[in-house]
Specification:
Structural class: mainly alpha
Number of helices: 15
Helix content: over 70%
Order of helices and strands: HHHHHHHHHHHHHHH
Largest sheet: none
Radius of gyration: 22 Å
Strand content: under 5%
Oligomer: single chain
Shape: globular
Length: about 525
């Protein structure tokens, strides 16, 4: 790949990646309005919410390899255009089916953008410049995820829900044109063909597992969670999806071994996992993603449910994470130059642990908003340091010809971690909340069930109803039970990040090649 203009290319790569990350969180704020306007059922609402992530995860591996074979610049631009088309379809949707179809197109486009953006950054920058490049890339990714709820709240309040999708249409096409002008042409791997069987198996495996983990808390892990929830022969679809995912991934690994033994080009070169930085780095990234998204899942519920904030105020508080990530993104290069990429990961994860564990301690009925914002800034600074340099570390020993495979594998691993974090947090929340709220004396069973099934979204209305009926004491007990549960869920996120921090220390102690210099030898 030519490196004639890497500094001109980096902003386009980062902004394009930021768009597709933003879309993963921006829709959640507008979902209640979408349900009301289009008359969505429970199952349809679930698909609108999760289909983007499911298809995104399912296609990362095959499209990452496609970038190696057909050209990463071509894949990046095509993915952005397809993402823009899907966004336009969503904005114009007049029915559940058309909206779900638009979300599917968005997911396909996004699966082309993320691995090609990461692989191109990995190939363009070498030496000390890589730390700064991944600092920008990681800060943009973290900021986009944190800003999603705020942007969604502002746009939905001004233009209603179609605006949430429409706002990304001109941005996607503008970045595609920008990329066409500034990205240097890359040389595809010659003589290769895409492994279509492996692609189908990896898509079925990744899609099934991600769907099952995301939807387990809402659809039910074995039995349907409610009468309205989808079912297969009286059982929840979740165990079927998880079984399909496990079988699909097992078959995928077996097929890739067979392809490699036959001397053909595999979709995923399994020898990548013999690289210490790649295998242990991916394990760390998996745990980090799980812990991070537990927080993203739990904190908005606490702010809206227990504190009664609207979506806009909640998004504003969560934007503190983005502010922290921008601070660390600007200084990541200098920190990595002093203590190395892995040292930056260790320091960043330590700050994340401090921020999340501090939040678990700070979350109570009348917690100070300033304390929450301050801890989120600390967490965001750590996120900006750790996310960018961990990405760089995972790819440190991966040569350019396999950069798309390596990038897509890392992105898929993070998607699995995200799904596990959200699914695990939902299950923990439902289980503990049911026990705590159910123990409140003289509380009507319907009210208790409504709090649990809504994950606290119905809490403000229930508390108000209890007070109006002279049950102020029960209202405060329910609120306290909910807050205690949310504190426990955030503490679980902190525990996961502690494990990831220990993994990063082990990774650093093993003498893995520094991510900022390893590519100098390629």
């Amino acid at each position: 790949m030519s490196t004639s203009s890497p500094r001109r290319a980096l902003p386009a790569l980062a902004v394009g990646m930021g768009l597709i990350v933003l879309d993963g969180t921006i829709v959640a704020v507008a979902l209640p309005t979408i349900i009301a306007d289009l008359g969505l059922g429970v199952a349809q609402a679930e698909w609108v919410s999760s289909l983007y992530s499911v298809i995104f995860a399912a296609l990362l591996l095959p499209l990452g390899r496609a970038g190696d074979l057909w050209g990463r610049k071509r894949l990046f631009i095509s993915g952005l255009v397809l993402f823009g088309v899907g966004s336009a379809a969503c904005a114009l949707a007049g029915s559940a089916l058309s909206l779900i179809a638009g979300r599917a197109i968005q997911g396909i486009g996004a699966a082309g953008v993320l691995p090609s953006s990461l692989a191109t950054t990995n190939a363009l920058f070498t030496g000390k410049a890589r730390a700064g490049a991944f600092g920008v890339w990681g800060a943009t990714m973290a900021s986009a995820a944190a800003l999603g709820p705020l942007v969604g709240g502002v746009v939905a309040s001004v233009w209603s829900w179609p605006g949430v999708f429409a706002v990304t249409v001109p941005a996607a096409f503008a970045v595609a044109l920008w990329a066409a002008l500034v990205l240097p042409a890359d040389r595809p791997v010659s003589g290769g063909r895409l492994d279509w069987v492996g692609g189908a198996l990896s898509a079925a495996g990744a899609g099934g597992l991600v769907f099952g983990l995301i939807e387990g808390p809402s659809l039910g892990w074995w039995r349907p969670a409610s009468r309205e929830a989808a079912s297969i022969a009286g059982a929840s679809p979740v165990p079927f999806a998880l079984a399909l995912g496990a079988l699909g991934l097992a078959a995928f690994v077996s097929w890739e071994f067979y392809v490699a033994r036959a001397g053909r080009l595999a979709l995923l070169d399994l020898t990548l996992f013999s690289l210490r930085s790649f295998s242990l780095g991916n394990a760390t990234a998996f745990i980090v993603a799980a812990g991070e998204f537990v927080l993203v899942f739990a904190l908005p519920l606490y702010l809206t449910g227990a504190r009664g904030m609207d979506a806009l105020a909640c998004g504003g508080i969560l934007a503190a994470m983005a502010f922290g990530a921008l601070i660390s993104g600007a200084s990541a290069r200098h920190v990595a130059a002093r203590i190395g990429a892995l040292g930056t990961v260790v320091a960043g994860l330590a700050l994340e642990v401090v921020g999340v564990c501090g939040l678990a301690w700070a979350i109570h009925v009348d917690a100070s908003v300033f304390a929450i914002v301050g801890l989120l800034i600390v967490y965001g600074v750590g996120l900006g340091f750790a996310s960018a340099q961990l990405t760089s570390t995972v790819l440190a020993e991966v040569d350019e010809s396999r950069s798309g495979q390596g990038s897509a594998t890392q992105s898929t691993v993070r998607q699995f971690g995200t799904a596990l974090g959200v699914g695990g947090a939902g299950t923990l929340l439902a289980t503990v909340l049911a026990a705590k709220v159910g123990a409140v004396p003289l509380l009507d069973g319907g009210a208790s069930q409504a709090v649990v099934e809504s994950a606290g979204a119905a809490l403000p209305a229930i508390l108000e109803a209890l007070r109006e009926h002279g049950m102020a004491a029960q209202a405060e007990l329910v609120r306290a039970a909910y807050v205690d549960t949310m504190s426990l869920v955030v503490a679980a996120a902190g525990a996961a990040l502690v494990v990831a921090w220990v993994f990063s220390i082990v990774l650093r102690a093993g003498g893995t090649p520094c991510a900022s210099t390893a590519h100098d030898s390629h």
